[in-house]
Amino acid sequence: MYQKYHDALLSLINTKTTARAQKYFGELENPQEGNFAKGSLPIVYIDFVEDDTSKANTIDIVFSLYIVHISYSKNTTLRENSNNEIHDLLKDIYKNLAFKSVEGSQPIEMKRLQKIYDATAAGGYLSVYKKDISITIKNPIITGEI
User: Fold this and answer.
1) CA–CA separation, 90 vs 34, rounded Å?
2) Closest Cα partner for 69 from 38, 25, 29, 113?
3) Residue 59: in which H helix or E strand, if any?
4) Mean pLDDT of 34-54
């Protein structure tokens, strides 16, 4: 049930923003290792986090977006450019996801943005932001989809 919304978010980010998106499989568990391909950054990892089935007619599905960028240079100007790139990407994500509907859902609700990592790691200066989003769908049991 959640797969189609996960895939829809991947497609939306990959086609409407400047970043590449992929499913999250624990790549940030140990950020010091930095298993990131230099040419793939910035990247957005999408992780299904939870659902809320407390309402009878709808289900709220929560995803976390991990926005990752790294500067491999000690040059202050290049590091600042990298920082500007991630801020531009955050704006791009907001512009292309906020209040959009995916797979017949209610408009995407943008939740909290938080910088969760900002340090020297993986041979560079790594920044990771976490953006939570919520998608409200009709309860598929009531609609007869499952």
Assistant:
1) 21
2) 38
3) strand 58-71
4) 86
